[in-house]
Design a protein that fits this description.
This protein is of the alpha+beta class. The chain folds into 3 domains: 2-67, RNA-binding S4 domain (Structural Genomics Hypothetical 15.5 Kd Protein In mrcA-pckA Intergenic Region, Chain A, Roll), CATH 3.10.290; 70-165, 2-Layer Sandwich (Pseudouridine synthase); 172-270, Pseudouridine synthase (2-Layer Sandwich). Helix content is 20%, strand content 29%. It is built from 7 helices and 15 strands. The protein has helices at 18-25, 31-39, 112-120, 153-164, 238-245, 254-257, 294-303; strands at residues 2-8, 43-45, 48-49, 61-67, 83-86, 90-95, 144-150, 169-177, 184-188, 191-193, 201-203, 212-220, 224-231, 270-278, 285-289. Strands 5, 6, 7, 8, 9, 12, 13, 14 and 15 form a 9-stranded mixed beta sheet that branches. Strands 1-4-2-3 form a 4-stranded antiparallel beta sheet. It has a two-stranded antiparallel sheet with strand order 10-11. A hairpin with a 3-residue loop joins strand 5 (83-86) and strand 6. The protein is globular. It starts with a strand and ends with a helix.
């Protein structure tokens, strides 16, 4: 399946390279994808094929043909689930590090959705379509911990509203690089898609949105600090970007901490340890906790 998008080049993008202009006007497409689409002829300017180096002019008409990567429904797979709470409306899963939440380009199997379809097929909300059934919020692939799943549309809507209103509690544990001197603090820095790398988020980028992260020091080491983090907003990669912004990237996070930040485990040392919410049907406040996973405890043991 494919769809066509048309846009007129605005004055502020006049003189920009074509690939940068497309990324600005169609932010859901990465820079590398735009360059490939230009080569494949899926992007034209005034009905003519162009190269990525072509400089655009205000008033020119851009046409982009987006080919959906979600043409096939995800398949059920018998993957074990660590369910920490469940009733007729919701379930809370303790996601392992390394598992992607839902299928996406280049990763169509082994996801949490594939597992949910095997264990709870036909009993998941459909608001996010067949690619993301039941998924109310997400965790990065290499972030472990708790994630809530809606079994019906009513529960999904009410949970999503709590997240939007910042009444959905999300508490994390992380190990960050460096010794944090203050015992606690708040990072108030707006986040948006990076202008330099479309796969990353950045503080102060164009179209940034308000982002608040609270932190509390739990333990200090020579070169690391063990912290508790509380999200007030839930922007993409928020904790990872905010901690790197203050000079304390998450241990193991080579995306925001640089290649020298690599640890023995893959990805960042980050665990969603607690979620709290009002039940979408009964209104009762519920908290669910998940202990630190083995990789996290092992790392703490080595740096102590």
């Amino acid at each position: 399946m494919s769809k066509e998008l048309f846009a007129t080049i605005p004055a502020e993008l006049s003189g920009e390279r074509a690939d940068k202009a497309v990324c600005a006007l169609v932010p859901e497409v990465s820079r590398s994808s735009v360059q490939r689409m230009l080569q494949e002829g899926k992007i034209t300017l005034n009905e003519a094929l162009i190269s990525k180096n072509r400089l655009v002019k205000a008033g020119e008409v851009l046409r982009v043909v987006l080919v959906s990567q979600e043409t096939d429904a995800p398949q059920a797979q018998n993957i074990p689930l660590d369910i920490r709470y469940e009733d007729n409306d919701i379930l809370v899963v303790n996601k392992p590090k390394g598992m992607t939440v839902h299928p996406a380009a280049g990763n169509y199997s082994g996801t949490l959705v594939n597992a949910l379809l095997f264990h709870r097929s036909g009993n998941l909300s459909g608001i996010n379509g067949e690619i993301r059934p039941g998924i109310v919020h997400r965790l990065d692939r290499d972030t472990s911990g708790l994630l809530i799943v809606a079994k019906n549309d009513s529960a999904h809507i009410k949970l999503a509203q709590q997240i939007k209103e910042h009444t959905f509690k999300r508490e994390y544990r992380a190990v960050v690089v460096g010794r944090i001197k203050s015992d606690c603090g708040t990072i108030n820095a707006p986040l948006g898609r990076s202008d330099k790398d479309r796969k990353k988020q950045a503080v102060g980028a164009k179209n940034s949105k308000n982002a608040l992260t609270h932190f509390e020091v739990l333990e200090r080491f020579n070169s690391f600090t063990y912290v508790k983090l509380l999200l007030e907003t839930g922007r993409t990669h928020q904790i990872r970007v905010h901690m790197a912004f203050r000079g304390n990237p998450l241990a193991g996070d080579t995306v925001y901490g640089g290649p020298k930040n690599k640890c023995s485990f893959n990805g960042q040392c980050l665990h969603a340890a607690l979620i709290g919410f009002n039940h979408p049907t009964t209104g009762e406040y519920i908290e669910v906790e998940a202990e630190l996973p083995e990789y996290f405890e092992s790392f703490l043991g080595r740096i102590r």
